[in-house]
Amino acid sequence: MTVTADIGEVASPRNVPFSPDRQGYRVVPARHPWRVVGTVVAVVLIFFTLQSILTNPRWGWDVFARFFLSEPVLVGLARTLLLTVLASALGFLLGTLLAFARVSPSPLLSGVSWAYIWLLRSIPLIVLLLVLNNLGYLYPTIDVGVPFTSLLFAQYNTVEMFTPFWVAVVGLSLNQAAFSAEIIRGGILSVDQGQHEAAAALGLSRRRQALSIVLPQAMRAILPSGFNEMIGLAKSTSMVYVLALPELFYTVQVIYKRNLEVIPLLMVATIWYLIIMSVLSIVQLGIERRFARGAVRTPSGPLLPNVLAFLSGRGAAPAVKSPPPAPASTTAVRKPLVTAGEKLARRGVGRIEIRDVSKRFGALTVLDGVDLDLAPGSVTAIIGPSGAGKSTLLRTINHLERTDTGFVTIDDELVGYHRDGQTLYELKEAAIRRRRAAIGMVFQNFNLFPHLTVIENIIEAPVSVQGVARAEAVELAKDLLARIGLPEKADAYPRHLSGGQQQRVAIARALALKPKVLLFDEPTSALDPELVGEVLDVIKELATSGTTMVIVTHEIGFAREVADTIVFMEGGKILEVGTPSRVFTTPTHQRTREFLAKVL
Ligand SMILES: Nc1ncnc2c1ncn2[C@@H]1O[C@H](COP(=O)(O)OP(=O)(O)OP(=O)(O)O)[C@@H](O)[C@H]1O
Predict the structure, then answer these.
(1) What's the rounded Cα separation, in Å, for the pair 104 and 98?
(2) Among 28, 31, 312, 323, which residue's Cβ finds the most Cβ atoms within 10 Å?
(3) Which residue owns the Cα nearest ligand 1 atom 10?
(4) Superfamily for 340-599?
(5) Looking at the whole model, is its pTM more than 0.80?
(6) Closest residue (by CA) to atom 5 of ligand 1?
(7) Phi, psi angle pair for 598, to nearest 5°
(8) For the structural domain made of 69-144+154-311, what CATH number should be given?
(9) Are 345 and 339 in contact (CB under 8 A)?
């Protein structure tokens, strides 16, 4: 008996409250009559189109069948494929260099890259190919020697060297590079600034930052347009007919001019282009999945097993990695964060001296002659109203922010400069990076690398900056994960962790470099209130480790509990420094009293 009959006997269905415990409901899906009409129209159209194509003898399918796999067509096809592969590879390589040059701080590099892109995008491809084909007229020989002298090591005939095939490869690559450069630049710009900062704070070299951190993340934005370009290029190869180079399209043209079977031979070229584009689209799908690692909440499995599973009716294959198990209790018993031996090794290490540091952003003075001395192993909380310059001061300690005047030293070693008499010379990037490795930094937004697993995030800097062997770094990372209570998350991606867990991993990543000094920039501001506790617990434990710690925080209760020194800042100046008991109970400065009255 259906419920409709049942309800109908008692009252109208509208009056009857829905009762979930009733059995026997019949579910009727919503109807979409226009969807049905659309499908029928589409099927009819496809049927008539196919029928017309297959039954009209003028399409000449017998001629098509004769030439589809003929030798000249296959040779032309191979040439088209070779041109596409070579020009794509060279074009994307040059495009990547141009894109990095374009975003570089050097105005010269950026300008040259801009000019190249502007010029090559403006010149029609056909004109570029014809100019390159006439290079022999402009420069009959290519000379290798010392310019402005008569010293000549070798001389080549331009026409002999620059065959139509190489003219095509060079022309297509130069053209492709200009378009790919802008696509790659778009990808680079789509990577969050925090990722660059985290990579710099870990001391990764520029090359490593570009290849391991920025490009893999940029690929997600680059791939769809990049493949579009590649598909466009595969079709643009037909333009090299102006060089009389027999690629696929030129070959079929030559044949149909002889036998006058225009349509069947155009179909030969069309079907081959369709096949090339389909293969490229499948490759694109596979590569896009590869670079989606860590970027999606529910990763889809590998492409091929999924397709096979779908075809055999078994549904989708499981994802690359099974979702991480339920979070372990943060209160579970775990190893101490820092061992007694490590505490001993840190004794007397990590003295910070900040001298007369000033910093302006345009007309705004953000730091105004700041002086501060922090003892080895001390824990300092910097508090103050928003915009006081707290984060900027913290970032000058590891030279993420350059000072306008003044300097910072750690254990008497200047950060970011070397001194010669009364002059401070800024160090080269590589030297700054080496010194930065001694200063760990934890950011408000965690800034974990989303495309790397937890363990890969932690070992990245020890392996690439400190040259630790990978196996050793993995052991150390696993040990750190056990100490922060996340041993089971080694292979999870950051996106699959809660905010609190991500921040704990970020702390482990900073600790992996065994830093002398740890900087925390509002480490709990981006967390839900219930997750704050688990991060603060880890920081509290670190506070007893003998590592010098500087924490910018709005958590006044936490600052009081964990810090041995409180620094109150406002308007780019330090107004008050003292122990928590003194600053919180008897602040000497009027502004500190007003601030604490508001936040306590
Ligand atoms: N890169 C920058 N360019 C221009 N102005 C900046 C830059 N970074 C910071 N500022 C400005 O410098 C001032 C101090 O910023 P900072 O982030 O150091 O303050 P804060 O005390 O940490 O504030 P909050 O507690 O809100 O984070 C602010 O007015 C900010 O707008």
Answers:
(1) 10
(2) 323
(3) 361
(4) P-loop containing nucleotide triphosphate hydrolases (3.40.50.300)
(5) no
(6) 361
(7) -80, -40
(8) 1.10.3720.10
(9) no
